[in-house]
Amino acid sequence: MTEPIVINKLTKDFGGFMAVDDLSLTVPRRSFMGFLGPNGAGKTTTIKILTNMLSASSGEAYLNGVDVTKDPKAALANVGAVVETPEFYPFLTPRETLSYLGELRGMSRQDIERRGREVLETVKMTDWADKRIGKFSKGMKQRVAIAQAILHEPSVIILDEPTSGLDPRGMVEVREILTELKRADYTVFMSSHLLNEVQEVCTDVVLIDHGKLLRSGSVASLVGQASVRRIEVAVLQKVSGELLNKVSKLDGVTELRAAGENQFMFSLKGGVEAQSKALMDLQSIGLNVVSYKESGLALESLYMSLIKDSR
Amino acid sequence: MMEANVEAVKNGGRALPSDLQQTVVVAKYDIMKYLRSRRLLGILIIEALVLVLITALVGTSERPHTVDGVIEQYVGFVSILIVLGATLFGGDAIVSEYQSRTGFLLFPNPVRKSSILAGKFASSVGAMGLVLVTYYAVAIAAGLVMGDGGLSDRVFASLGLSLLYGISAMAVAFLISSIMKGSTGALILTFALFFLILNIITSLIGQLGGTKPWFMIDFAGGTLSYIMSDPYPVDTTMSFEIAPGQSFTTYLFYPEVYLSIGVMVAYAVAAMVLAYIFFRRREMAA
Ligand SMILES: Nc1ncnc2c1ncn2[C@@H]1O[C@H](COP(=O)(O)OP(=O)(O)OP(=O)(O)O)[C@@H](O)[C@H]1O
Ligand SMILES: [Mg+2]
């Protein structure tokens, strides 16, 4: 059984600079894989190689079992993609753009008509279906870009920061679309900087930096592994130097700092047991704890600690 | 084989179109670009103005004209139309996919670069053909109205040669377009090349150098107007005495028709092969 995306020892050398460096990864069928990494990590470069926009310096990239570096037409037959924010032909309307791409992908006229209506509905662009794209805003273009990626119901969808440029409502809507895709059994490979988005919709993540793989696995297992969490505490007392001094001596507490009149935060080693114990410790040194919570997301903490290690 | 079945269902059981079918699709939507852009309209307006101007000049002149003689007056402007057409329909055909980022939309599709190139070339040549055929049609109509006698085959030979020169100039424009980084630069270079640079080189080689520049594309393209003269002009050398004991020699060379056809075909083929090689290797950077 061939996995939908298999990247094997992929390297991209930009005149001595390794944007992708011996990267190997597999996206299992029907998984929703988040592709994470800091700016310049090589995500877009990897995705451009997968979508026939860059050649690889070495290695292979298989889509549905076909090496895209050797036979891009066959490899991309069953793939939909949004790479960066694409531009559209300004003289075409969304409906015509979908017809163009649909015809290239071998869709029949009825098929294009029906699916075109569906996907424009999905991305809420029906009212704009017959207006020339030339003057659309960035977010509107991004919606059309997502529509064309799912037009032909490809088995594999590749997205590079699909919510970039969208307004908050647009982001929520795209997230809903993504969640729907997940239900519909697509395989999705998506780069993103929005860890809440990733944690919400992805089943798996792969984290890269400097073009190299740092970690990959299911979201659940990675979140469970997060060894350091950031804790935010609000107390009744004024946060004084003396108080902080006491807190800093507690088990597992590092990187402690005040965060306002009555608040402070710290990093805590260990899992949920340590987190629960720390709360009792805070109370045992006489603090009246008003709130006690993990700041941000587990995935974010993991991301931060892994990126810090790789710098 | 279960796997393959699942995938077929997922993709709606669709098979990909052949390369040729995709070429036709690319050409079809590219033609739409010209129909809706101001470029085709602009060149047709220039064409109309020139036609009106030449018609006015020929119509008000006292000398009697033959049909061919009238048409010959019009043919003088054809090579400029071809330069404009190659610039506007070919100069940025490829580079614009990169510079205006539409390649991000087009290239991830299951379509070969060769189909994209062929489709775009077909539509650009189609637009050029439309411009030239309209021009000749008006010229022929004017000739029949204002001239005496019959229409000769030379007019159709001229049209054929202009289409061939149009195709080879378009191929060179595509080559420029597949190499250049920016659209504006590609447009300017294409225009300057055909309007200026090639002419200068050709006259340096020919008029001053004394070597027949039969291998130059613009020289070969000249056949489209010389074919209108009867008899076809022959090469000549002219010497002038500019000072006692000092003479200046200039050469007037005329392209041979069949050789020029070969040269134009060679340019078209070579330029498109090179354009394909560059386009195929070109990366979607920024
Ligand atoms: N065409 C190019 N020529 C030279 N270097 C390039 C080119 N494209 C990308 N790079 C470099 O490769 C590295 C990886 O870039 P890439 O765009 O893949 O990062 P990314 O992970 O997508 O980052 P971001 O999160 O900012 O989108 C960067 O350092 C970038 O400067
Ligand atoms: Mg990127």
Write the layout of secondary structure elements.
The complex is a heterodimer of chains A (311) and B (286).
Chain A: E1 5-14, E2 17-27, E3 32-36, H1 43-50, E4 58-63, E5 66-67, H2 72-75, E6 79-82, H3 94-104, H4 109-122, H5 138-150, E7 156-160, H6 168-183, E8 187-191, H7 195-201, E9 204-209, E10 212-218, H8 219-225, E11 228-235, H9 241-248, E12 253-258, E13 263-269, H10 272-284, E14 289-294, H11 298-310
Parallel strand pairs in A: 3-8, 3-9, 6-7, 7-8
Antiparallel strand pairs in A: 1-2, 1-4, 4-5, 9-10, 11-13, 11-14, 12-13
Chain B: H1 2-10, H2 19-36, H3 38-60, H4 67-75, H5 78-90, H6 95-99, H7 103-106, H8 113-146, H9 153-179, H10 183-208, H11 217-221, H12 223-226, E1 236-243, E2 246-252, H13 257-281
The structure holds adenosine-5'-triphosphate and magnesium ion.
Detailed description of the structure:
The complex is a heterodimer of chains A (311) and B (286). Chain A is α/β, with parallel strands linked by helices. Chain A contains 11 helices and 14 strands. Chain A is elongated. Chain A starts with a strand and ends with a helix. By secondary structure, chain B is mainly α. Chain B has one domain (18-281). In chain B, strands 1-2 form a two-stranded antiparallel ribbon. The longest helix of chain B is centred in the middle third of the chain and has 34 residues, at 113-146. The radius of gyration of chain B is 23 Å and the shape is globular. Chain B starts with a helix and ends in a 5-residue tail after the last helix. The relative contact order of chain B is 0.13. Classes of the chains: A alpha/beta (311), B mainly alpha (286). Chain A binds chain B through residues 1-2, 48, 51-55, 64, 72-79, 81, 83-89, 91-92, 96-97, 100-101, 103-107, 111, 145, 148, 152-155, 158, and chain B through 3, 7, 10-12, 14-17, 19, 22, 25-26, 29, 32-33, 36-37, 100-105, 107-112, 281, 283-284. The structure holds adenosine-5'-triphosphate and magnesium ion. Magnesium ion binds at residues 43-44, 160 of chain A.
